Amino acid sequence: MQHILIDYENIQPKNFDGVDVNNCHIWLFLGVNQQKSLPLELVETLLQFDNKHVHIIKMQNSGKNALDFYLSFYLGKISELDKQASVCILAKDSGYDVLVTHLNSVYDGMNIIRLANPDNVSVIDEIGTDVTTQAVTKIQQQVIKEEGEPTLDVISDIKKELKEDISKPFIHHCYGLVCAELIKENAFLPTYKHNLLSAIKKYILASEMTNYDEDEQNYIIEGIFDKLVNYGLITIENGSNQLTYHVDSKAILELIVQYVLNNQVKTIDELHNMIRQRLKIYQQQEDESNVGLIIKWLKKEGIIKQSQKDIYYPSIQYDYDDLYVNSLHIIKDMPDKIRPKKKDSLRNFLESRLKISDVMLLDKILKEFITNKLIMVAANNKISYNL
């Protein structure tokens, strides 16, 4: 399920063209000064969503960073209830990035990003399982009273939940220890899974496991192995169950490059944050110098290009006919009421769904849509569909 959390004090999106209204929750955080009125275009867009998918959180008092704390609190609860969530934070405050990096590391299935441009909101991917409406409603019931303020009972419950669920951050801590050992030169890399798990248990994490019984230890070690696989450091050969390791510096660089190409962030700041996060995951130096070296190498190899703060991906080759057909299917499969209403919004939507950064190619597709009279564009840039 997708979640869009909006810091409305510093970003005021007008619409959510290109967002699947049936598979997205909108969380609108309003400061004291934003509660008297909302733009009509935004209200009309919100009315397209199921009322159970729109959550308006109003600050009761003004104060420095008050809204930031509210948004961070809800983000934490969403992370607990929907561990496969795809989350977009619309905020200009880079202070959220530390929390984003941490949650992406702790919850393997989550995809959390922060965007400062509301026009790029459709880049969030639908990658996870659904969080039920009852679960989302439970977030609000737990977190706020009727007037919207956190209660002491809630804080107490959260502390209790965190204490009971300590294995998650502990597993991530142990993963870091194991990863640091595996990437060492001449490290012992067992051929089979059971031998690797045994080595982790007996040698690498022997001192970390003393407070856990055997079942808990096995659960923790399986969690570590899953992380190693999910991050691409280990693959399992089909049929033989033999392990292949990708832990040398060249392999780790290839993993980072593939992650960059898979996600295709649009700005240099987002690229910096992404590479820093992946370096941390792979137990590499994550300082600005190393991040800068990787970006410089990506440019030298022609994998990315930079224009001011924007990033492009010229190395990706596209089959135009396939893209045209895929674009047509994507639009046809969308209910008419949630199709993008303007030409620019349609271009941004196709860019995010097709993972294309080639603006000229997208314009060519739209031009052919118009030539074939599949869409008609009015003078005010609004679109009508004939599909």
Structure explained in plain terms:
With 387 residues, the chain is an alpha/beta fold. Helix content is 48%, strand content 12%. It contains 14 helices and eleven strands. The strands form four sheets. The chain has a five-stranded parallel beta sheet, covered by helices on one side. Strands 6-7 form a two-stranded antiparallel sheet. It is globular and about 70 Å long. It starts with a strand and ends with a strand.
Q: Residue ranges: pLDDT <50 for 5 or more in a row?
A: 123-135, 159-164
Number of helices: 14
Domains, number: 4
- Structural class of the secondary structure composition? alpha/beta
Give a short synopsis of this structure.
This protein has 387 residues and is of the alpha/beta class. The protein has four domains: 2-163; 167-245; 249-312; 320-385, Arc Repressor Mutant, subunit A.
Topology:
Elements: E1 2-7, E2 24-30, H1 40-46, E3 54-58, H2 66-81, E4 86-90, H3 96-106, E5 111-115, H4 133-143, H5 152-164, H6 167-182, H7 193-204, H8 214-230, E6 234-236, E7 243-245, H9 249-263, H10 268-281, H11 288-300, E8 305-307, E9 310-312, H12 320-333, H13 343-354, H14 359-371, E10 375-377, E11 383-385
Helix pairs in contact: 2-4, 3-10, 6-8, 10-11, 13-14
